[in-house]
Amino acid sequence: MNENNNRNVRDDERSVNGELTSLIDDRDLSRVVLSPEEQAYEEMIRQRIRARRRAAERKRIKRNRTIALILVMVIVLIVCRSCYAAHRKKRDEQKVNTESSVAEKTSTKKENTDSNAETPAETVESKPEETEHKIQQVDGLTFVDGILIVNKTYSVPEDYAPGINTAAQAAFDEMMNDALNDGVYLYINSGYRTYDEQYNLYYNYAYDRGVADADKFSSRPGHSEHQAGLCFDVNSTENSFAGTTEAKWLAAHCSDYGFIIRFPKGKEKYTGYEYEPWHIRFVGVELAKELTSKNLCLEEYLGVTSDYTLAQDPVSQEEMAEQLGVTVGDPNEVDETQGYEETDSGYYDNGGYSDNGYGY
Ligand SMILES: [Zn+2]
């Protein structure tokens, strides 16, 4: 019993001693070490540390904000650039679509509405070559403002064989009578020609001189006004006809009867043919007088071309030569490209080739 009591007492003492020791230790740290001045100093140090920490925190936040701002700007820039690229691509596609098919206006409209409203619908419409004049195709014939046009660009079908136009014939008869009263004798050298007749005529020229030269004054089959029955070669079809009393009378008066000198001097680039003082085309009195007074050839007036390469089924001189089994250049020349121009002017001077009575 005593031993147990003693042990308990010793334990109590030990625990009390332990508490005291710990109390003393605490006091040593908090009170004993720091004087009031030291406490104030410590507080000051703590405040400085806190201030520095806050400053460092603010700096960190500021830096992070800057980085974030730069990142946002970069992202915005990338997005904008990709958006612009996409917009441009879409616009280009639309442009191509509108240009390629004006007729498909509905699909273009749909695309335009799909894209942003800020991009106005681009109306890029390919204008037709002739805007002022109405071109109609009827049974293979081409009418411009109601006038039948037959030239290097516009042909007539092979089986088109109307014969001579009765109004044209009547007008010529009247003109011929009036000319006779003036002491001028006019006659029809060549009027209506069929496709086959024109074929033979053209072939003979092309065979003799080559296609390039034949194209200057003779029409390919299907491209001759003579097949339409609306024109006449009057009197001589030689260049020597120019300047004669008959040629002068014809030029001065033919419009009074509804005719025009179809291939006037200086209009070769429009008509596609050399000057032919003998070839007259019937267009009616009103138009004939207008064209003559304004010094316009039919192609100029109607705003159309006369060029085999612009025809619906273009045939090059090389292809034509191959079809006919003839040469492009002068077959008599060794060198086709040189010397051909020289001999060209000589043909009419000696009059050797136009003696058969057919010009164009
Ligand atoms: Zn003719």
From TrEMBL:
Query: Which GO terms of the molecular function aspect are on file?
Result: serine-type D-Ala-D-Ala carboxypeptidase activity
Q: Where is the composition biased (Low complexity)?
A: 345-360
Instruction: Give the enzyme's EC designation.
Output: 3.4.16.4
Which intervals hold domain D-alanyl-D-alanine carboxypeptidase-like core? 165-284
Instruction: List membrane-spanning regions.
Output: 67-87
Name the residue ranges with Basic and acidic residues bias.
124-135
Keywords noted in UniProt: Carboxypeptidase, Hydrolase, Membrane, Protease, Transmembrane, Transmembrane helix
| Compositionally biased intervals (Acidic residues) | 332-344
**Presence of the UniProt keyword Transmembrane in the record:** yes
> Which biological process annotations from GO are given for this protein?
proteolysis
Positions of the region Disordered? 89-135, 328-360
Q: Pfam families recorded for this chain?
A: VanY (PF02557)
Q: Which SUPFAM superfamilies match?
A: Hedgehog/DD-peptidase
Q: What is this protein called?
A: Serine-type D-Ala-D-Ala carboxypeptidase
